[in-house]
Write a structure and sequence with these properties.
This protein has about 160 residues and is α+β, with helices and mostly antiparallel strands. The protein has four helices and four strands, in the order H-H-H-E-E-E-H-E. Helix 3 packs antiparallel against helix 4.
């Protein structure tokens, strides 16, 4: 095993790597990019896997993708997406007892996180409407197999970070 073949020794080119999100957005405005691209929430470089503490399995990725999709689409549909700097879901490394119908369940718990910031160096948790959080929680629990508990992270940065890694 002599390593990668020569054609696989690629170099990542990241011309905007040193810029903060607010600076990238200014560049986007100067380039007249669409607001939907400029206002897109930051996404973790390692992808959703960083939001799965512990072992990463295809099943955990499926669960988190479904939860994240419901949360982000819910923010868009409620007109809240642009009020939030970054949002996402974290699949917690705990299981919780619940009740579905007449049966006890032992399923996963997720945390939803939404923050407001300008550059990501500091952030405050978003005070999303309770009705919205209740609607999203119910939709997640009723539609994502493997979830029976939804929490909302109200930690600011600092002391917490935006992601949970």
């Amino acid at each position: 095993m002599g390593g990668l073949p020569d054609f696989m020794k690629l170099k990542v080119v990241e011309p905007l790597k040193a810029l903060f999100k607010d600076e990238v957005r200014r560049v986007g405005r100067e380039l007249n990019l669409p607001d939907t691209l400029i206002g897109r929430h930051p996404f973790p470089g390692p992808g959703l896997a960083i939001r799965i503490p512990g072992d990463i399995t295809p099943e955990k990725v499926r669960i988190l993708q479904e939860v994240d999709h419901i949360f982000i689409d819910g923010l868009r549909n409620a007109g809240l997406y642009d009020e939030v700097w970054q949002a996402g879901a974290i699949l917690l490394p705990v299981q919780s007892v619940g009740v579905m119908g007449d049966e006890r369940t032992y399923e996963n718990a997720v945390a939803l996180r939404a923050v407001e910031s300008t550059d990501g160096m500091t952030a405050d948790w978003c005070k999303l409407p309770y009705d919205f959080l209740a609607q999203i929680s119910n939709k997640i629990i009723n539609n994502v197999r493997g979830i029976n508990r939804v929490t909302y992270d109200i930690s600011s940065k600092p002391p917490a970070t935006i992601e949970w890694e």
